[in-house]
């Protein structure tokens, strides 16, 4: 949640996505923040009693977008066309961008360009009322879960890039505790609802196992 971030947190990569105050989703977000404060992340990600799964996933997806937006915003000066000419997560994993509408055939591009495409695409999905309805009583579409899974799969790639290519910068900025807490929350959430294929998580598998073993 946003309360994790320090003095540099005002610098976001894209505008923050706000959940309207007074709405049911806002109440859910507050509930999530309160549970997170207890320190038990496995419990904090569970679906609250009586709540709808789609709504819980929607609220958390918006929150993860905001967290990653902030984290990436702190290191944009280190992630350049020169330093990161390809979007990678270590030497074995490289990502090419396609969104299925504007860019149908995957293109090879630099990390800052890829992340710009990715965050703009996510923002467009979150702003689409037919996909992410903010009004009470408006149903989620039938394809909501598959859209949410694609968003989370792509947001994971930003974490993977930061960990593999920019962790030194994160440590210099003393942001590693924020990054680790945010990523742990993200991973526990996607594991709880089986939202990202295990193969997609491979670039950070060792870290994921390490984070999980601390909670057993």
Quick synopsis:
The chain has 216 residues and is mainly α. Helices cover 52% and strands 2% of the residues.
What sequence of helices (H) and strands (E) makes up the elements?
Answer: HHHEEHHHH
- Mean pLDDT, as a whole number? 88
Number of helical regions = 7
Number of domains: 1
- The CATH homologous superfamily is called MOB kinase activator
Indicate the overall shape: globular
The CATH topology name reads Butyryl-CoA Dehydrogenase, subunit A, domain 3
The top-level CATH class is Mainly Alpha
Question: Spans with pLDDT under 50 lasting ≥5 residues?
Answer: 1-10
Q: What order do the strands of the largest sheet run in, or round the barrel if closed?
A: 1-2
Strand content: under 5%
Q: Pairing-aware structural class of the strands and helices? A: mainly alpha
Largest sheet: 2 strands, antiparallel
Number of strands: 2
How far is the first residue's CA from the last residue's CA? 23 Å
Gyration radius, in Å:
17 Å
CATH architecture type:
Up-down Bundle
Protein name: MOB kinase activator 1A
Organism: Amphiprion percula (Orange clownfish)
Keywords: Metal-binding, Zinc
Binding site for Zn(2+): 79, 84, 161, 166
Overall description:
This protein is mostly helical and 216 residues long. The chain has 7 helices and 2 strands; from the N terminus they run αααββαααα. It has helices at 24-37, 41-44, 53-75, 111-127, 144-172, 176-192, 205-213, and strands at residues 87-88, 94-95. A two-stranded antiparallel sheet has the order 1-2. Helix 4 (111-127) crosses helix 5 (144-172). The longest helix is centred in the last third of the chain and has 29 residues, at 144-172. Mean pLDDT is 88; it is low at 1-10.
């Amino acid at each position: 949640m946003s309360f994790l971030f320090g003095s540099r947190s005002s610098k976001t990569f894209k505008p923050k996505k706000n959940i309207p105050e007074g709405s049911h989703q806002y109440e859910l977000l507050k509930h999530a923040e309160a549970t997170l404060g207890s320190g038990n992340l496995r419990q904090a990600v569970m679906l609250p009693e009586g709540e709808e799964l789609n709504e819980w996933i929607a609220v958390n997806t918006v929150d993860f977008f905001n967290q990653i937006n902030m984290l990436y915003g702190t290191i944009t000066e280190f992630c350049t066309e020169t330093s990161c000419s390809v979007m990678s997560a270590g030497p074995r994993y490289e990502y090419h961008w396609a969104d299925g509408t504007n860019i149908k055939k995957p293109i090879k591009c630099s990390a800052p360009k890829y992340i710009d495409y990715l965050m703009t695409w996510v923002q467009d999905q979150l702003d689409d009322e037919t996909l992410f309805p903010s009004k009470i009583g408006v149903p989620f579409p039938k394809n909501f879960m598959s859209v949410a899974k694609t968003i989370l799969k792509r947001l994971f790639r930003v974490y993977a890039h930061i960990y593999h290519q920019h962790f030194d910068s994160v440590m210099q900025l003393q942001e590693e505790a924020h990054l680790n807490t945010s990523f742990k929350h993200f991973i526990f959430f996607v594991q709880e609802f089986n939202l990202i294929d295990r193969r997609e998580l491979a670039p950070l598998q060792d870290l994921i196992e390490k984070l999980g073993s601390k909670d057993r």
